[in-house]
Amino acid sequence: MPTNQSPYLQFPKLATTRLRLRLLRPEDDTAIFAYKGRLGEPRIPRIEQHADISETQYFIAKCLSKFYSRKALYWAITLSPSDKVIGTLALSAMHGDSKMVHRAEISCALSPNYHRKGLMSEALIAVINYAFQKWNTLERIHSEVSVDNEPSFQMNLKLGFTLEGVLRNYTDDGGNLIDIRILSLLRADWAANSLYRNEQPSHALQPPLGPLASQSLKS
User: Fold this and answer.
1) Which CATH number goes with the domain that contains 98?
2) pTM (2 decimals)?
3) What percent of the chain has pLDDT over 70?
4) Would residue 196 count as lying in a domain?
5) Domain containing 168: what range?
6) pLDDT single digits (tens) 115-149
7) Are 46 and 36 in contact (CB under 8 A)?
8) Domain presence at residue 2
9) Structurally, how many domains does the chain consist of?
């Protein structure tokens, strides 16, 4: 049964068969810079690269600021039993929204060293299950993918997201305007998809969160 529970009272740590998802920490800067600082390699559309570790430190501070201001949840993805960060995953308020109530945007990034192992799909399933199970007001999870990022697009489709259209010249990416695919997963889609029912449930590594007095995920 979905419930109204605030993740801002205590950050929701999640676990899957292979992964642990926790709050980002300032000391994660070295691990994140190790994959965001690979400037000589082909860049993934819309995944920022960092020229200096200070940019990584700013990225972490920005993620934590959004959490503490109740605008977003940023998980650090770690491969159990190690606590080293190999990627990040976020649920955030849509552009123009001050809070997440009936809709939220999901986004993610993973070190290239761990691509094509099913790890990001595993993390996404855990977070999507958590969101729909815990927040009874949430009806839609929104995803934006560059038209040039075919692996991410195919991953979204395999997770049950529906392509709604393409926004042309929608966003600036390194000085170039690029087209973006818009996808969504509705609560009804999630409930009907056996991928989520059959997946080993993610579980919180802490006591249940207290009830939220007014509405879930407020800013």
Assistant:
1) 3.40.630.30
2) 0.85
3) 83
4) yes
5) 14-204
6) 999 999 999 999 999 999 998 999 999 999 999 99
7) no
8) no
9) 1
